[in-house]
Write a structure and sequence with these properties.
This protein is an alpha/beta fold and about 260 residues long. The protein has helices at about 10-25, 40-50, 75-90, 105-120, 155-160, 180-185, 200-205, 240-250; strands at about 5, 30-35, 60, 65, 95, 125, 150, 175, 190-195, 225-230. The chain has one domain: Rossmann fold. The protein contains eight helices and ten strands. The strands form two sheets. The protein has a seven-stranded parallel β-sheet. Helix 1 packs across helix 2. The two termini are about 15 Å apart. The chain binds 2-amino-2-deoxy-6-O-phosphono-alpha-D-glucopyranose.
């Protein structure tokens, strides 16, 4: 079962995730991180930046990218990762990949999968979740075995992401994303969600049936998952009291 941790604020969740990442990097300087974009993981990146740790050897693989936006567009995930992760954390730009960043788009998925395997796999994958339950850009219906590939965004996701663009018409229709199979191969998944708008998606991911209709439910098939949520995002969890109780009684020797 995933470990569900209910925190008082986004900042607290960011600090806790930063602790876990820095413990990993202390064990292995060149750890491989799976990097998520969107507003949710920002507290992690802010916490990491404030710790001023040496992360120059860390390798990164972004979860997803729009197709059809130039990399130089301020809302391309390459630009977002550079602005919000690589620069503030002092990562080496050449060690951070974004899907679709090399070669033709037709072979970009297979190329990305190869690069992840060559790096030894992802040690820790940061994840947000969409209001429609998507992780990465794996929309409802995505196969649990899927690998990095080009997908079509749902209207819901385009509407959710329109806030980053002048109008919804500017939000790309296609994207390239790590698959649910790619994500499931990462050794540790850290899924974050904040706010009431994510409560249904979190309940479906953590407690709902394992179904392609709720891509987040793929986490139930993974042996090492940490879910960091605030009270609002946790509000629809049926076993909420148990999760709080389990966290309060977590053995001191047990790591996250
Ligand atoms: C975006 C991203 C996802 C992200 C999700 C939630 O479309 N592709 O990786 O987890 O939607 O975004 P936010 O964290 O801004 O709510």
């Amino acid at each position: 079962m995933a470990e569900i941790v209910v925190l008082d604020s986004r900042a607290e969740a960011g600090e806790l995730a930063a602790d876990v990442i820095l413990e990993l990097v202390a064990r292995r300087r060149d750890a491989v991180l799976g990097l998520a974009t969107g507003s949710t993981p920002l507290p992690i990146y802010q916490a990491l930046a404030s710790r001023r740790a040496d992360l120059a050897a860390v390798r990164g693989f972004a979860l997803d990218e729009y197709v059809g936006l130039p990399a130089s567009h301020p809302e391309s995930y390459r630009s977002v990762i550079t602005r919000e992760v690589v620069e503030p954390l002092g990562l080496a730009p050449e060690l951070v990949r974004v899907p679709g960043d090399r070669g033709p788009i037709e072979t970009a998925g297979a190329d990305y999968e190869r690069a992840i395997v060559d790096a030894g796999g992802v040690d820790l994958q940061i994840l947000g979740i969409g209001t429609d339950g998507h992780i990465g850009f794996n929309e409802p219906g995505s196969s649990f075995e899927s690998l990095t590939r080009v997908k079509t965004l749902t209207q819901q996701t385009r509407e959710d992401n329109a806030r980053f663009f002048d109008s919804i018409d500017d939000v790309p229709v296609n994207c390239i994303t790590q698959g649910l199979g790619t994500i499931r191969r990462a050794r540790h998944l850290v899924l974050l969600a904040f706010g009431e708008a994510k409560a249904a998606a979190i309940a479906a991911a953590v407690e709902g049936p394992v179904t392609a209709s709720a891509p987040g439910s793929a986490i139930q098939l993974h042996p090492h998952v940490t879910v960091l949520v605030d009270g609002s995002a946790a509000s629809r969890l049926a076993n909420l009291e148990y999760y709080r109780y389990a966290w309060a009684n977590k053995p001191a020797w047990e790591s996250i």
